[in-house]
Write a structure and sequence with these properties.
It is a single chain. This protein has 19 helices and 7 strands. By secondary structure, it is mainly alpha-helical. Among the domains are: 79 residues; 146 residues, no CATH class. It has a 3-stranded antiparallel β-sheet. The protein has a two-stranded antiparallel ribbon with strand order 4-5. A hairpin with a 2-residue loop joins strand 2 and strand 3. The longest helix has 17 residues. The mean pLDDT is 92. The chain binds zinc ion (2 copies). The site of one zinc ion has 7 residues, from loops.
């Protein structure tokens, strides 16, 4: 049993904490994990086999089959490895049942639901100036959205200036120096663009007025970091240019931040272009065209960002405002009222599920634009409901305190 343990540092990762614990006793991380296995063997041999032998697979969310067993291993170690309880469960990242948008998985770290896609794999960049002040790794460097250090105003460094190797302190088992021996603290840094610094700050829960003058960018005004995750994930899945090399690069993040400038101008430009294209391609007005052939999966990816209520989902709120404006426009945009939603899209607009949509339709509250064959089962994938009729059902029956027309109309 170990007598002493380090205290975790602010937002420290489990891996960083274990590296410091190993250092305290002159072990490598691998040797520390061997000690873990000895403790587990004593307590429960079945569990010992469930703990991997290397640091990069140790965290709970890496467990392939049962993260409950991994959790149990870490609980046992937390209690018995050290004289004082080790805070390893508190630092671990586990799986979350929450899904963003159309079904993006998420991970849970210290009460935050983080889209799994945002977790870096392999390369974990560092801020040499932070390492100079305190040698450890904060969790935020694992997030792809964090490209800069807002405290030092510099870009995170991904690659060694001496040997060009990409950093991965977890597989290296070391956050003080690169495998070539060059210390992180001695590495030069580049100034980061202000937008990257702001983004890094808000991801870490800082309010923009604490750090910078006002900005009209939606991303920097959100009250909750989950809304920020939701909005960026939405941009990436819906609005970002497609292509074989689509990834969250510096360029994509720059483009994403500028998309949310003067919100919702760029969104409305994008949606108006889609309407114009649909009108150009159709030989008759939008009548009987599936809504998703005009707008793609707009409604489905705009759910759960992280909520469905308009008051807490600024992206969906702007989309409702846009559709409402189109439906009541004096020009050809009002044609989209005749486009057809499928059951899942109706469920998004009404904030319900597809069974409820079937029931609303059965009871005659929600008219179908096409008659089903006698005895045909309701298929939520089929576009059957006019946008305008569905919108009217929402206005008449499905508004609530946290999701109503006033929430977006009051802006005008
Ligand atoms: Zn720093
Ligand atoms: Zn190197």
């Amino acid at each position: 049993m170990l007598l002493l343990r380090p205290d975790p540092l602010p937002a420290e990762t489990l891996e960083s904490f274990l590296i410091r614990l190993a250092e305290l006793y002159g072990y490598t991380p691998k040797q520390l994990i061997e000690r873990f296995h000895i403790i587990l063997d004593e307590k429960d041999q079945k569990l010992s086999g469930a703990l991997p032998g290397n640091l990069s697979q140790l965290n709970i969310y890496h467990a392939n089959t049962s993260s409950a067993i991994r959790q149990k291993c870490l609980e046992l170690l937390a209690e018995h490895m050290c004289k004082h309880r080790l805070p390893i469960i508190e630092l671990a990242v586990s799986r979350s049942k929450f899904r963003y948008g159309a079904g993006h998985r998420s991970l849970l770290w210290q009460g935050l639901d983080i889209p799994r896609y945002f977790m870096r794999r392999g390369c974990i960049p560092v801020c040499p100036r932070c390492i100079e002040e305190a040698a450890y790794v904060p969790f935020y460097w694992h997030l792809r959205l964090v490209r800069a250090c807002y405290r030092h105003g510099c870009m995170l460094v991904e690659q060694c200036p001496t040997c060009s190797k990409q950093f991965d302190y977890v597989s290296l088992g070391n956050f003080r120096e690169c495998s070539c021996g060059r210390s992180f603290a001695s590495m030069p840094t580049d100034m980061a663009p202000e937008s990257f610094q702001l983004l890094a700050a808000v991801v870490q829960g800082k309010k923009v007025d604490e750090i910078s003058a006002s900005t009209s960018n939606l991303l920097f005004q959100l009250g909750d970091v989950h809304q920020l995750f939701g909005a960026i994930l939405w941009y990436y899945t819906y609005a970002a240019p497609r292509g074989p090399h689509r990834t969250l690069s510096n360029a994509t993040i720059t483009e994403c931040i500028s998309f949310f400038d003067e919100w919702p101008c760029r969104l409305y430009t994008l949606l108006n272009e889609k309407i114009q294209t649909a009108i150009m391609l159709a030989d008759r007005p939008c009548s009987d065209i599936p809504f998703n052939s005009i707008f793609g999966n707009l409604l489905l990816v705009s759910r759960r960002l992280p909520e469905n209520f308009l008051i807490a989902n600024p992206v969906l709120k702007a989309i409702f405002a846009f559709l409402d404006e189109c439906l009541h426009a004096d020009d050809e945009r009002s044609e989209i009222g005749y486009s057809l939603l499928n059951g899942y899209e109706v469920a998004t607009l009404l904030d319900t599920d597809s069974e409820q949509v079937a029931s609303l339709s059965d009871k005659g509250y929600l008219p179908m634009a096409k008659k089903l064959k006698h005895n045909a089962r309701f298929n939520p994938r089929r576009p059957l409901f006019r946008l305008e009729a569905t919108f009217n059902v929402w206005v008449a029956r499905h508004q609530c305190r946290r999701s109503n027309r006033h929430i977006y109309l009051s802006r005008w």
